[in-house]
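Notes to self after the call with IL:
- keep both proteins in one doc
- input above output, always
- annotate only the second one for now

Protein 1:
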Amino acid sequence: MKMHSLRRLRVCLAAAMAVSVVGAAKSPGTLQECAPDVAALDRWLRREADTAGFSGVVLIERAGKAVLNRAYGRARLDNAFWLASTTKQFTAAAILRLVDEGKLAVSDSLFRFFSWAPRRARSITVEQLLAHTSGIPARGAANGLGDREAAARAILAEPLEHAPGTTYHYEDEDYNLLAAIVEIASGVAFEAFVERRLLIPAGLTHTGFCGRLAPNVKIAPSAGRDVPPPCTAGVTPVDWADRGATGLVGTAPDLLKWARAVRGGRILSPSSREELERGHVFVRNEENTDVYYSYGARVYMQDRKRREVWHSGYDVRVGHSSTVRLLDNGLSIVVLSNSGLDATGRPWAAAVARAVDQCRR
């Protein structure tokens, strides 16, 4: 995003993204709902599409009601996008679903599933994979590998970067191993388990894996004229370097359906639902906000209260990015983009989602 665009946006948000406070009788400390100036936001998004290269779909809901649902640039409202790392919460939910079914525990070690694992990796737990504290390095060891056993062996053959459970380090290998664990524990292919236990119960009809998408799913074009679209052979193959970490394609409405299904108790037990969006590992401090990693997402805390759950992903191969912000004040923001990076080097979906100012007390 160009500097003049940032200044213009700050003015837009300060002057036009006015907040209307409701429920003044609520108890002290209760987060308040807000109503962004949708017309002003839409004008800014159109300018960014016309002058700065933004392309994508923006869906904003407040208290369950859509206040903005529009496509910009080369995107269309019904487009599905490569979700990249937003896939991780689905994988985490698959693990917790198996916990609910009594087929595994997050305290289980890798030795239960991979008895051949090197001694240094045997004590790594499912929970450490979920929270990115396994110590496994991010080296893309499973790139191009379609066999589960070969991929797991390649990942676990790498020397650990730190002792399991001691340090947070974000990478994809943890979640690709989790996908393998889903297959081993359930006896069902990972994609089929996600479809049957998660996507279908949640009513997600436009989300899935390459090669298994419904005929009516229309994938957005890629950023750049010479880049093939997602689900093209050799571009975004769902091998074991993608499967559990970055492998899903989906639409903005489906992502909000997913959030409602999880929080509405249609997918997980109350205890697993709480674990999915609870901050498990402290990551960093951003000004007056503490950032934690939950299972497949970041959690932002202020004054010991959760402010929002943030999912995001970016795939450099096709220039698609995804961001889902679920604020505890009732505002939900989904941005899916097919325009690559903005002028500052940020994925467009994250840049636009961050621009929609959150309510504050």
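Protein 2 (the one to annotate):
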Amino acid sequence: MRPAIRAGVVRPAIRASAVRPAICAGAVRPAICAGAVRPAICGAAAGKRPWLRPRARAAAAVLCLLLAAWLGWYLGQGPAEQTDATFMPAASFLRTYVRPDGRVNRPDQGNDTVSEGQAYGLLLAEAMGQDSQFNQIWQWTRVHLQLSDGLFAWHADAAGQILSPEPASDADLLIAWALLRYEGPGAAAFHSDGLRVANAVLAYEVTTGADGMPVLAAGPWATGRPATLDPSYWSLPALTGLAQLTGDQEWQRLADSALVLTRQLTHGGRLLPPNWAELTTTHQVLRVLPEVAPNANDTEPQAQYGLDSQRTVAWFAASCNPQARALAARWWTLLRPSARDDALSLRLNGTVVTPTPGVLPLVAAASAADAAGAKAASLRLLGQAVVDQRLYPGYYGGAWAAFGPVLIRTHVLGGC
């Protein structure tokens, strides 16, 4: 049995990314900007959402396409001309979702907070040089979410009370990276805090793969056999960045294993990465296999490419490793068809499961296109993602509308 429950606490299987942010408070928006209007699909709410009149639909679609095209062009200008546009979504995310006390709020998820959101806030504030806001976000995170072992509870309510103490390794990894990257006032203290978090990740969230290679599991609850993995937690820029910042080559070994396992999971890029995977022992041989979402309650009968694994594409495309970028480039072949590039979820062979559009699918497709050298398509998709987030705002879309331009158009979070 997989370790779904530890110490009486249900693991954080349904996380920020699993609660689909494109589905807005019980009704999915119509996809005006996808080039065709799709109906709402949330149960009874679907039949109650009014359709736009044909003439209004056409006008809205044209307006959205023009906005996306303009933003794609603007992002494609030289460094001096596109700097403001590149960081504008990041500034919007920090302004919209970070409260004055440093808590990253999810208004579309009951005003709660997840450790992933705090990590996103720290990284974006650091990348933009927002020292005061970086300090506020870290202090709130440290006081309300940090556990005695140095890791972070993944879920808290609007008052900062912990709802689930189980850590999620993606947040822990990105928080350590953000703290150790920081070069503003009082950097030494942040570096000390970051080193503590980094050491805790290595101590509690790493399992062992074939030939003794270290593998980043989904959390301390996920390191047994079979081990539960989320490939989207393998941020290659963070792993290689921590190797450089700490001097500990265990981080580079984690980056290397992430590439090896992702190549195995996707058959060398012929399939898309899954939301979840399982490291298991078969005939005394360690194998990594795609699996359905933990605690999915039969709602996801097959392994899928969705709002977790779309981050895998973005992180691999932003990597300095040419093999990782080559893998991301191969995924462009599966994501290139227009019915797939903004779909909320696909099967691993690219077949559409949920056609409802989302911001992160667009950012992932833009990342794959950039890795494949399809620059015009990448900028078009990136512009579409930013426009969609402006028209249909949400925490998760806002985060990835912010990361997309920074990862694709700059080396601020890459270091290549």
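Annotation: The radius of gyration is 20 Å. The first helix runs from residue 44 to 48.
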